[in-house]
Known about the structure:
single chain; about 180 residues
Amino acid sequence: MDRDRQELVRILKGAYSGELAAGLAYRGHWKSVRNAGERASIQKIEREEAVHRQRVGEILASLGARPLKLREAKMWMIGQTIGLSCHALGRFLPMYFAGRLESGNVVEYEDAASHARALGLLEFEADLLGMARVEKEHEMFFLSVVTGHRLLPLVRAIFKWGACDAEAPEAIEAESEPASQPTS
Ligand SMILES: [Fe+2]
Ligand SMILES: [Fe+2]
């Protein structure tokens, strides 16, 4: 139980600062994108990361934990740097790496949800699975943007993300439903 609590807090501290970096990176990203529809989608993603950060902060506080100041500073710098670099990298690479990052976020929130479940914190589990589902929607958006690009096969072979058979967002909650029910 202590181990689950430690792991949950560790993951959430990372996620809290990661959401800051993501929000800043997406702010730079949408400013660098010309297509109005893509711009609006990335703006929406930026807003959703802010919602995640707020909720993760609340969960951390109820677990008696606080974000790490040093990590906050580091992720602020990383987010700003990525946001600025989007203007120089063209269209494909920022979209690709955003999608790859989002796929990691899905796993991170699913892990956090499983620790919350082990601790009997079912409300947190539901919230974290909801966040995993939204991260999956983000991943699918970026995947849809890069699919068919001539560089995708090469970049996919190197960085191991970008297959078209990614799981649909709805599958996250559907998969986890039985685990949330009382067991006999
Ligand atoms: Fe997020
Ligand atoms: Fe995201």
